[in-house]
Write a structure and sequence with these properties.
Elements (H helix, E strand, L loop, with lengths): L1 E5 L6 H12 L3 E5 L4 E4 L6 E4 L2 E3 L4 E4 L6 H13 L3 E2 L3 H8 L1 H10 L7 E2 L7 H7 L5 E5 L8 E4 L2 H13 L4 E5 L7 E8 L2 E9 L14 E4 L4 H14 L3 E9 L2 E8 L5 H7 L3 H12 L12
Parallel strand pairs: 1-2, 1-6, 6-7
Antiparallel strand pairs: 3-4, 4-5, 8-11, 9-10, 9-11, 12-13, 12-15, 13-14, 15-16
Helix pairs in contact: 1-9, 2-3
Length: about 300
């Protein structure tokens, strides 16, 4: 098979591992910077061009699209879909998962466990919004944040009010969420591939840090998940319509709650913690499912 990897940096661990896994299994693979692609949008013969070349003949593409270029990256991926190329994750599914508010609403509709979340626009609603999520301490999140950036823990009501009003004054969209104290600054990353949890790790935040992201100094170790956690992760990925997803869970007293569903999960931390060949599993998923024109939006929304 001829596989394209949409990635801006071929030196990234996840990109390198996917290239390596594809070559080991005998496939032709090429890394393509999606921000350098440009498109000919026509009903008769849609095309993607890259540095003067017409990209054609691909059987499948693996999108590794960064959050900062979601709009353009998904447009390029959508063009490949129009050309009949199989995407491991579809453009609509990626867009759905990247919209934090939309994704929470879809997960809520499926009855999945979530932290109590509030969303408002006007400063007059701040007091009631804080009360709605159970008061301080609480977590304030930028809708566009990633890797723990734009996430604030407000430990008192006055601090929460000040931060929320400041963000609203800048006309920045934010979510207000309850703080799951019993999680102890740790979360569970479940890696879902083709409808199965193939690996799971516990990420623990650094001392004094409530965010568990590895990019922020967190540590990772292999963890045994419960049947309910496994079922929650699988259903969350299916709700977003993702074949490959990193589902982040917190262990609350009432059961697992979903923090985020990531459409381009990093492989370095979880492969290192579990010793599993996740990249190889992703390539096997493509081998199993890739067919010309096999692109359809799964899930809802």
């Amino acid at each position: 098979m001829k596989i394209g990897i949409l990635s801006r940096n071929p030196k990234l661990y996840s990109t390198r591992r996917l290239v390596e896994a594809a070559k080991v299994r005998g496939h032709e693979v090429r890394v393509i910077d999606h921000t350098r692609c440009y498109m000919n949008i026509t009903s008769s013969s849609p095309m993607v061009h890259y540095k003067g070349e017409n990209l054609e003949g691909f059987d499948a593409v693996i999108p590794r699209i960064g959050a900062s270029v979601t709009f353009y990256g998904t447009a390029v991926l959508r063009q490949f879909e129009m050309m009949g190329v199989y995407p491991i994750n579809e453009s609509v599914a990626i867009s759905r998962s990247r919209d934090k508010l939309r994704s929470l609403q879809l997960l809520s509709r499926k009855g999945l466990g979530l932290p109590v979340t509030g969303f408002a626009r006007h400063p007059d609603e701040v007091g009631d919004l804080i009360k709605m999520v159970g008061g301080a301490p609480l977590v304030i999140k930028l809708l566009e944040g990633t890797q723990g950036i734009g996430v604030v823990l407000a430990e008192t009501k006055s601090a929460a009010s000040s931060v929320i009003e400041a963000f609203m004054g800048l006309e920045t969209n934010i979510l207000i969420q309850e703080f799951i104290k019993e999680a102890g600054g740790a979360d569970i990353r479940c890696l879902v591939v083709d409808g199965k949890v193939v690996a799971a790790m516990k990420r623990q935040g650094a001392d004094g840090e409530f965010r568990s992201n590895l990019h922020r100094g967190g540590t990772a170790q292999v963890v045994k998940i419960t049947p309910k956690e496994r079922a929650t992760a699988i259903k969350a990925a299916a709700t977003m319509g993702l074949n490959v997803a990193g589902v982040d869970l917190l262990r609350a007293e009432r059961g697992p709650v979903i923090m985020e569903v990531n459409s381009s999960p990093g492989l370095e931390g979880i492969e290192g913690a579990t010793g599993k060949d996740i990249a190889g599993m992703i390539i096997q998923c493509i081998e199993k499912n890739a067919k010309v024109g096999r692109t359809k939006t799964r899930g809802q929304g």
